[in-house]
TrEMBL record:
It catalyses: heme b + (2E,6E)-farnesyl diphosphate + H2O = Fe(II)-heme o + diphosphate. It is a multi-pass membrane protein. Its EC number is 2.5.1.141. The lineage of its organism: Bacteria, Pseudomonadati, Pseudomonadota, Gammaproteobacteria, Chromatiales. This is Protoheme IX farnesyltransferase. InterPro entries: Protohaem_IX_farnesylTrfase, UbiA_prenyltransferase, UbiA_prenylTrfase_CS, UbiA_sf. It is found in: Cell membrane. Pathway: Porphyrin-containing compound metabolism; heme O biosynthesis; heme O from protoheme: step 1/1. The chain crosses the membrane at residues 27-46, 52-73, 99-117, 123-141, 148-169, 175-196, 217-238, 244-264, 276-297. It comes from the Bacteria.
Amino acid sequence: MAQTKLAVFSGWSLVWRDYYQLTKPKVVALLLLTAWVGMMLAQPGLPALDVLVVSMIGIGLLSSAAAALNHVLDQRIDAQMARTHHRPVARGRISTERAVVFSLVLAATGFVVLYAAVNPLTAWLTLASMFGYAVVYTMYLKRATPQNIVIGGLAGAMPPLLGWTAMTGQIAAEPLLLVMIIFAWTPPHFWALAIHRRDDYAKVNMPMLPVTHGIEFTKTAIFLYTLILFLVCLMPYLVGMTGAIYLVGTVLLNLWFMGYAWQLKFHAKADTAIKTFRFSIVHLMLLFLLLLVDHYLKWTAF
Ligand code: HEM
Ligand SMILES: CC(C)=CCC/C(C)=C/CC/C(C)=C/COP(=O)(O)OP(=O)(O)O
């Protein structure tokens, strides 16, 4: 009897682990960090905790729904790529129907939470971001143009604005600067991985930049985008939104990113591309944590 119960429990935990994987949890975690910073920067003091919590839940649910829909729409190519062939829908561990229902339940719940407990503007903007990623990027851009991730990157760059509108009920210039930062960060983030996985994307005829324009061209594009990112990251300081703590930190972080891009372009080793990709995640995380530290320390300085 005990063995049967253990078998049932372990079976269920495997199923839920697969559903959890559909939500791209690490991606959503960083998306939520950027949304949270948007919420914290929206006012001088601390935000209302109840609004913060329901906003994080709503944005998290809609982001997870977008990720799950991406698994469904990409299952054919996921099944053929070394990096993604193990995924639950690609492997048939979760049926298309169940994955779609899972995604729609997450999306509906997230939208209702945001609409009812936060504000309609944030609900609609978050739904639009989900649509932008799951439909516009995944179904069209990804398969149509090597600029796919530059344009599609806007959806994933929205969370700081979503966090801001959750607190204020209105769009403002400051969070749009944060959106621009993630927008400029996305190409070096993804193209470094795309270089590392070029053959995978070529095998499924995905028009990623290293496939359509070659690895050298992509390395140049990555370096140029880290230069653009360096300049865009100065904007919050130049407009007076942040102080010296952020300025020093952002200069160091972006010089570090440019160093990776320079090494990738001129002194690449076998693992430089994947190391650049992994650093891009640390870079964005530290950059947004820096915005938070600066916001409160800068504020208490006056
Ligand atoms: C169009 C925009 C983007 C594209 C094409 C893209 C592409 C990718 C890809 C292909 C992976 C590898 C996933 C895997 O192998 O499981 C990845 C991982 C990741 N991405 Fe992005 N990304 C984008 C935007 C973002 C944004 C906006 C964030 C967060 C703010 C983000 C955070 C992450 C994180 C944290 C990982 C690591 C996930 C893991 O290790 O499981 N990405 N990205
Ligand atoms: C509501 C909201 C903010 C929505 C956006 C949420 C979201 C999940 C953005 C994901 C960014 C990302 C990892 C894209 C990769 O897709 P891919 O298909 O190129 O990667 P894959 O090949 O690993 O599946």
